Amino acid sequence: SYDLTQSPSVSVPPGQTATITCSGDKLGDRYASWYQQKPGQSPLLVIYQDDKRPSGIPERFSGSNSGNTATLTISGTQTMDEADYYCQAWDGSIGVFGGGTKLTVL
Amino acid sequence: QVQLVESGGGVVQPEKSLKLSCAASGFTFSKYAMHWVRQAPGKGLEWVAVISHDGSTEYYTGSVKGRFTISRDNSKNMLYLQMDSLRPEDTAVYFCATQNQASFDNWGQGTLLTVSS
Predict the structure, then answer these.
(1) Is the separation of the CB atoms in B1 and B26 below 8 Å?
(2) Chain A residues within 8 Å of chain B (Cβ atoms)
(3) b (16+ CB within 10 A) / e for A24-45
(4) Given an 8 Å threshold on Cβ–Cβ distance, is A93 in contact with B57?
(5) pLDDT score, position B101
(6) What one-character DSSP code corresponds to residue B62?
(7) Each residue's pLDDT tens digit in chain B (117 positions)?
(8) What phi and psi values does residue A81 have, to the nearest 5 degrees?
(9) Which residues of B33-68 are buried (b: 16+ CB within 10 A; e: fewer)?
(10) Bridge partners, residue B38, by sequence
(11) Chain A residue with minimal CA distance to B112?
(12) Residue A67 pLDDT > 90
């Protein structure tokens, strides 16, 4: 089976850049997506196909994917960005999620 | 706009069965593969199952293979998850989600399943 690994938590002061990483074997050869989930809410797609933003997602969210690591970058982090973030890729037709990273903005 | 509404969750005893439903609207349901994703209390997301747009192909995560069955009725814009031989570790919020451009672009609000005696 294919595994994705994320750091459990990341902290960043408001206005600074948050970097959340996701590692997996040759992850750069697969498309990576990122989801934001706030308490009590459903996940929200924030990055798809490595670096594309869905309509309505602020420009401060960006993504990259190369080698064994996909990265979600939030520039000028706002308090509203505090949430859990999950990376996701595919193992054939099987979906795989990382364990999630809790982003704290303080 | 796209709307996915799950239903059918509840409290069920171990080894019993339950069927979840997901009502889809706002898009051409028959054109998209559909997934179930679950989240145990306080835990991360876990992919459960996928069904192709026409219902011809299904895949499951290993822990539910042989116990869960995903199905769809394109005439009714409905997605289902039949869950048999339920275990306490199946306790979770179950989300249905659409697949588009290699991602899950729309999610329902989820329905909670609790497996407990």
Answers:
(1) yes
(2) 1, 31, 33, 35, 37, 42-45, 48-49, 52, 54, 84, 86, 88, 90, 92-100
(3) beebeebbbbbbbbeeeebbbb
(4) yes
(5) 87
(6) T
(7) 999 999 999 999 999 999 999 999 999 999 999 999 999 999 999 999 999 999 999 999 999 999 999 999 999 999 999 999 999 999 999 999 999 989 999 999 999 999 999
(8) -85, -5
(9) bbbbbbbeeeeebbbbbbbebebeeebbbeebeeeb
(10) B46, B94
(11) A40
(12) yes
> Rounded to an integer, what distance in angstroms lies between the CA atom of residue B109 and that of residue B6?
7
Which residues contact residue B40 at a Cβ distance below 8 angstroms, ignoring those fewer than 6 apart? B46, B89, B91, B92
* Distance in angstroms (rounded) separating the CA atoms of residues A76 and B107: 27
A4 CB burial (10 A radius; 0-12, 13-18, 19+): buried
Q: Determine which of B45, B51, B98 to mutate to test the interface with A (most A C-beta atoms within 10 Å).
A: B45
In contact, B116 and B91? CB cutoff 8 Å: yes
Which DSSP string do the residues of chain A spell out, in sequence order?
----EE-SEEEE-TTS-EEEEEE-TTGGGS--EEEEE-TTS--EEEEBTTTBPPTT--TTEEEEEETTEEEEEETT--GGG-EEEEEEEEETTEEEE---EEEEE-
